Amino acid sequence: MSSRRRKPDWLKMRPPSGERFTEIKSTLRDRDLHTVCEEANCPNMGECWSGEDGPGTATFMLMGDRCSRGCNFCDVETGGMEPLDPDEPANVAEAVAEIGLDYVVLTSVDRDDLADGGSRHFAETIREIKRRDPDILVEVLIPDFGGDPDAVDRIIDANPDVIAHNVETVERLQWPVRDRRANYEQSLSVLERVNRESDIYTKTSLMLGVGEYDHEVYRTLSDLAEIDVDVVTFGQYLQPSRSHLDVFDYVHPDTFDVWQQVAEEEFGFLYCASGPMVRSSYKAGELFVDALIRDGKSPEQARREARAASGD
After folding, report:
1. Is residue 233 part of a domain?
2. Is residue 178 in some structural domain?
3. Residue 289: inside a domain, yes or no?
4. For the domain that residue 220 is a member of, what is the CATH number?
5. Does residue 309 carry a pLDDT above 60?
6. What is the pTM of this model?
7. Residue-number span of the structural domain to which 137 is assigned
8. Total domain count for the chain?
9. 305 in a domain, yes or no?
10. 208-256: per-residue pLDDT in tens?
11. What percent of the chain is modeled with pLDDT above 90?
12. In angstroms, rounded to a whole number, what is the distance separating the alpha carbons of residues 98 and 161?
């Protein structure tokens, strides 16, 4: 089923706007910083950046805007990576302080060209943000680092509040959806290591509409619950261009509601954000804080527990 047919009404997007959106965009340009919100043409930029209903959230993309991998769903450019900017960790931390964000998401392109996959640069950025303000909640959406456990441990040691890594789709469809260097078991191993070696919250995301069957989605939820992943999100895959993977199906919002119910009530995930326009970092701050409150914890308590677990 081709994605060239007309999109349903529930996928209509409003362009981001507003004073807060303009302010953040200007700060990012002044510091030559990238956000995945912009690079991936996320439909929720204005809503997340404004923080009108909770903590404002922006997702900074580290290590450049070009990726060493070529996933067939992703709009980020492939190849031609530049050397790492040694000032980027400090620049990101300063931008976070200037913008006044309560919740920060850090992600990155894949950097298979680097010996450590960029994990040290990632960890340094986390520490710079926390050094300036220990009360800022930091979520990191990390690559698989080629399955290197030492790279994952570097992220753990930097002590973010949430570590996310996306499995993206069900096991059968890893290829052609993802680059061949990524795979289902490798992604599960990253999440499992975080849970085994720390008390940091873990999170992952799946796209629907790429040809998955319901029983495969259910199996994926079961696999994630078995390794104690805390949070899962579901969103509709949208084709960035005609050279990308076709949309197999536009999934009805009611189906997303069902998967949210299954994830939270049957499998017991801390929360599940699920909807056609949801992306992995959608309202990440607001939803995480609300979930902590429902779980009987404050963000401050969660931070204390994380610090105790890491020995800080």
Report:
1. yes
2. yes
3. yes
4. 3.20.20.70
5. no
6. 0.86
7. 12-310
8. 1
9. yes
10. 999 999 999 999 999 999 999 999 999 999 998 888 999 999 999 999 9
11. 60
12. 21
